[in-house]
Design a protein that fits this description.
Number of strands: 10
Radius of gyration: 33 Å
Structural class: mainly alpha
Shape: globular
């Protein structure tokens, strides 16, 4: 299409667009009379006729959405549906144009009248969360919505919910972590509702995020570790917990492990998957959780027994693992330990013998070295006292002799 043809078509389109807007302003009786003398023109048909000779050398667009060519020679169009960007692809520009036109005719906008919180959160989950977050995260969102939100303020209309309603809901939730989770859900849901013009004001802007202090990580002392291993010998899951302790893996990473993930010759373990609440294989917790770590001797002696096993080495459910661990720590008469304590213990033991924190971070798959240093490496008091006793003489010798002489002689005089 030449530049002149483009200009002529644009003028025609503008003229008839104005006529249609004028026509739409009439009441029904007036419209009936206008229809007799005025025939509405399908601008899309006109445009397609003009573009038949256009080919793929010039750019098409439909409703101001451009059809662009990709590096792989396919054509694409990006459109927005209820606040979410979506893409259409085709081998030809005209094919992509036709697909876009068809899709936009079927796009359903979110209804905004008198929507309840329950109705909106259901839409919010489908549009903004489903398929975009880990399945386990989505599962926890659904649990919190069902347990805390739906039964309390779910049936209230969005525009009628007050700040006080949210405050009362959060105050009724026991446990700081659950309270924070519900706050995070509501904050994002109300933010997206405002963008979709379902509400006029975002009341979550007036509510402070609940405070939650995480419990400090707790590792076994050397004595507690020995006691745990002693009572572990009578457990049917002793192999699983022993590997967990000596490898420092997350419990779900070890539950997902196959024998194919282990290289006994190179003494390495490839950690590339996990399991979720439904006992289904999924991706690891974070990107840095995908890692290769050493296969330590204590673990190798156990895992070599499973060389011929197909599928998951430790094919247990999460509940079975949790219940068995609780029985063992109860026999040990321990308090305040969780399965994650085995991971803490692994990191602490390696820290005590001087392994670089960056190396430990790589082994355990932490995204930030600060997590390894601040959260997990709480040096046990028994190790601290032992270290002081061993190093005190060496520490004293390293003091400046002149300062040491002056300090000691002054103290003798004062006595």
């Amino acid at each position: 299409m030449s530049q002149i043809q483009h200009k002529i078509f644009d003028q025609i389109e503008d003229t008839f667009a104005s006529a249609i807007r004028y026509y739409d302003g009439f009441v029904d009786g007036q419209k009936a009379k206008v229809k007799e003398n005025f025939k509405l023109i399908d601008f899309d048909s006109i445009k397609n006729m003009c573009l038949k000779t256009k080919g793929d050398t010039e750019q098409l667009k439909y409703k101001n959405i451009k059809i662009t060519k990709r590096n792989d020679n396919r054509w694409q169009a990006r459109y927005r549906e209820n606040g979410v960007y979506k893409y259409i692809y085709d081998k030809t520009q005209q094919g992509c144009y036709d697909k876009l036109k068809s899709v936009l005719k079927n796009v359903k906008k979110v209804e905004t009248k008198n929507k309840t919180l329950f109705e909106w959160i259901d839409i919010w989950k489908k549009i903004y969360k489903f398929g975009k977050i880990k399945e386990s995260t989505y599962y926890h969102i659904e649990l919190n919505v069902k347990k805390h939100i739906d039964k309390n303020i779910g049936n209230m209309e969005m525009n009628k919910i007050k700040t006080m309603d949210i405050e009362c809901l959060l105050n009724e939730i026991e446990g700081g972590r659950a309270k924070q989770s519900v706050y995070t859900i509501l904050k994002d849901a109300f933010n997206k509702a405002l963008k979709n013009k379902i509400i006029k004001d975002d009341i979550m802007l007036n509510i402070e995020k609940p405070k939650h202090k995480s419990k400090e990580s707790k590792a076994f002392t050397r004595e507690e570790q020995s006691k745990f291993l002693k009572f572990l010998m009578d457990s049917p899951l002793k192999d699983y917990f022993t590997v967990l302790l000596f490898q420092g893996m997350r419990r779900n990473e070890l539950l997902a492990l196959n024998i194919e993930d282990i290289d006994f010759d190179k003494k390495t373990i490839n950690i590339c998957k996990s399991i979720n609440e439904k006992n289904v294989i999924t991706s690891p917790k974070t990107d840095t959780s995908n890692r290769m770590m050493p296969l330590f001797n204590e673990s190798a002696e156990i895992l070599v027994k499973y060389k011929s096993k197909k599928g998951r080495i430790f094919n247990y459910g999460r509940n079975k693992v949790q219940n068995e661990f609780s029985k063992i720590v109860e026999k040990c008469n321990f308090d305040g330990f969780t399965i994650h304590s085995l991971r803490h213990t692994f990191i602490t033991r390696w820290t005590e013998i001087g392994a670089p924190s960056k190396l430990i971070q790589k082994w355990v798959g932490h995204s930030d070295n600060k997590i390894t240093e601040k959260v997990y490496t709480k040096i046990n008091s028994d190790y601290e006292n032992s270290l002081v006793a061993q190093k005190q003489e060496e520490f004293t010798k390293n003091f400046d002799t002149h300062f040491d002489t002056l300090f000691l002689s002054k103290n003798k005089k004062e006595r």
